[in-house]
Design brief:
Blueprint: E1 2-3, H1 6-14, E2 19-24, H2 27-43, E3 47-52, H3 55-65, E4 71-75, H4 83-87, E5 94-98, E6 101-102, H5 106-110, E7 114-117, H6 129-132, H7 137-154, H8 159-187, E8 191-192, H9 196-206, H10 212-227, H11 233-258, E9 267-275, H12 285-291, H13 293-298, H14 304-317, H15 321-324, H16 333-337, H17 339-346, E10 356-364, E11 368-371, H18 372-385, H19 387-397, H20 403-429, E12 434-435, E13 440-443, H21 457-474, E14 485-490, E15 513-519, H22 532-543, E16 547-548, E17 556-560, H23 564-575
Parallel strand pairs: 1-7, 2-3, 2-4, 4-5, 5-7, 13-14
Antiparallel strand pairs: 6-8, 9-10, 10-11, 12-13, 14-15, 15-17, 16-17
């Protein structure tokens, strides 16, 4: 069932006994987890924390702890799958789900044992209960069997009873047909709703336990959704406006309380319009321009002509090349102060229309200044380095004592962006992207440079996003803006015991697989829905292909290499 009263129906229930928190490994989930930890510590609520990377990992964690806990909280995991059927909970188990993914599985939405926490006012269009579930389902089946038995035994049946039975079966068939249509329409797209970190900050505000630290977690969670293009622009702007009011309230109160003086570890937040350049305050301006998605794609920096356009942009803004090559902190003070105004005057002449974005900045003490986008990118890189240790490091990076870990993540993020754009440049130069009709397709070959770095689902999704934007700007075809992209990367040959393709639950030795990730079109900024998840399921059924859908993102699957060709043919047929 759906829960909108965060204080009474959600948090009050968690305070009764020990809670097992199962957390997905992504930036929004880490920020939500940090907020929840602070609330639990304030109210002395006992809990255990388990990071999970996929459905099989989640099921294993639940089975391992099902005897010790009766309350389970799922952060950014579980809402799109049938938790009752997959986990088989006992009658005393109760599930709470805080997940930004949509759509909510219909069983989770209506089961009394599952409480899906949603933000009041969110547009969640569920079909009616009676259109999906029938209370008389078992009795209908029993009556039909009884009718057949009576016919066999007696040989004759009253005409009225026959007509009633026929009418009942006809109505049931019509109901089932309508149900299939409703379920397909409801589940055909995957998309994202309100950030889990933002939702839990709203809970903290309701409990009067909000602070700048928790507000900063909500800001970073929302910013990560925006950077990954998980939410439409309108949703981002409205959530930013809501957070801006809290930034003004908390920091105005802090200024009044401090009398204008701050300590060496004080945290201050501010709303700002900033250049949408990745890590530019921690990098050189030239490197940031080269490796930020808006300028990389808009100026076509993978080509020599693009590099000349970049130099022309710097010349028009009046920034000397020697200044642009220095680290931002070493640049001329006047240039740094007027940087946004300089780009505002010249960016449109070079086709860069969205070079400024609404965001927030944090100042820690007197030395450290971070933009929300830089922090989200740093934490994402920390998580992806090592799932187990990376999760703990990411939680630590969100604290005041985690500045060193945060800067380490920023340095890794620089290397990661360079790697992404090397692969994108290679794919465009060798024409790896091809149109298969209803979608674009790109395959990364085994011998390509840095291909091993993209065997992680989140990394492959990020590469796919950069690749799609770059392709759209590199081609004159207007139709390319309306086409989604499917990227394939080969995985190492699997020989370990894990859920897989053989009947006994173990992957056969020597089987080579590929990882597929689908990305919605870039022309759909107002609608970031992804249809690849359902399309993958239908294509697998049609071709009897063996796939692994273990990732919480249904648009990422693992497929046997030998099945890829017929699987793609089935996808083309389905989407045409």
């Amino acid at each position: 069932m759906l829960v909108t009263d965060l204080k009474k129906d959600f948090y009050a229930a968690l305070a009764r006994q020990r809670v097992l928190v199962l957390v997905a490994v992504d930036v929004d989930a880490v920020c939500a987890c940090k907020t929840l930890q602070c609330l639990f510590q304030c109210d002395q609520i006992s809990y255990s924390l388990v990071p999970v990377t996929g459905w099989s990992n989640l099921e294993a964690a639940f089975q391992q702890h099902r005897e010790q806990f009766s309350l389970f909280l799922f952060l950014n995991c579980g809402v799109t799958g049938d938790l009752v059927d997959s986990l088989r909970p006992d009658h005393h188990h109760r599930f709470f789900v805080v997940d930004s993914r949509r759509p909510i599985h219909l069983v989770n939405a209506f089961a009394a044992q599952v409480c899906v926490v949603v933000r009041e006012g969110d547009d969640i269009q569920l079909p009616d209960y009676d259109e999906i579930f029938r209370e008389d389902e078992e009795s209908d089946g029993g009556e039909e069997e009884m009718d057949e038995d009576d016919q066999n035994q007696k040989g004759t049946t009253d005409e009225d009873e026959i007509e009633v039975s026929i009418e009942r079966r006809r109505k049931r068939r019509l109901w089932e047909e309508k149900r299939r249509e409703l379920v397909f329409e409801y589940e055909q797209y995957e998309y994202f709703g309100t950030s889990s970190a933002l939702l839990l900050f709203e809970l903290a505000w309701t409990l009067s336990k909000d602070s700048n630290e928790l507000l900063w977690c909500a800001i970073v969670g929302l910013t990560d959704q925006w950077l990954q293009e998980k939410i439409p622009q309108g949703k981002y702007v409205s959530d930013v406006a809501w957070l801006q009011r809290h930034v003004s309230r908390l920091n105005h109160r802090q200024e009044e309380g401090s009398g204008g003086s701050y300590s060496h570890d004080s945290l201050r937040l501010a709303f700002t319009y900033e250049l949408s350049l990745s890590l530019y305050q921690h990098w050189s301006l030239l490197d940031s321009l080269t490796h930020s998605l808006p300028t990389w794609a808009g100026l076509k920096l993978w080509s020599l002509a693009g590099q000349r356009r970049l130099q022309g942009l710097l010349a028009d803004t009046g920034i000397p090349l020697i200044e642009a090559r220095q680290t931002f902190s070493a640049m001329d003070l006047e240039l740094k102060t007027n940087l946004q105004q300089l780009f505002d005057k010249t960016a449109e002449r070079f086709g860069l229309k969205e070079l400024r974005v609404q965001t927030f900045e944090a100042r820690l003490g007197f030395r450290h200044r971070f933009l929300a986008g830089d922090l989200a990118l740093s934490i994402s890189t920390i998580i992806q380095e090592d799932t187990s240790a990376g999760f703990s490091s990411a939680l630590h990076a969100l604290t005041r004592g985690g500045v060193a870990k945060l800067r380490e993540g920023i340095e890794r993020a620089k290397l990661w962006l360079e790697c992404v754009h090397r692969v994108v440049a290679s794919c465009i130069a060798t024409a790896q992207l091809t149109s298969l009709g209803p979608f674009l397709f790109c395959t990364l070959s085994q011998g390509m440079p840095d291909v091993e770095a993209f065997c992680h689902p989140d990394r492959l999704c990020m590469l796919s996003l950069h690749l799609l934007h770059s392709h759209v700007h590199s081609t004159k075809s207007r139709r390319s803006r309306q086409l989604p992209l499917l990227v394939s990367v080969p995985l190492e040959v699997k020989t370990t015991e894990t859920d897989g393709f053989t009947g006994n639950g173990f992957r056969a030795e020597g089987i080579s697989t590929v990882l597929l990730a689908g990305t919605p079109p870039v022309g759909s900024y107002g609608d970031r829905r992804n249809f690849f998840g359902r399309a993958f399921e239908k294509a697998a059924e049609t071709t009897a292909s063996h796939i692994i859908c273990d990732n919480f993102n249904s648009a990422v699957i693992e497929l046997k290499s030998e099945d890829r060709s017929r699987f793609l043919d089935a996808l083309i047929t389905l989407l045409s």
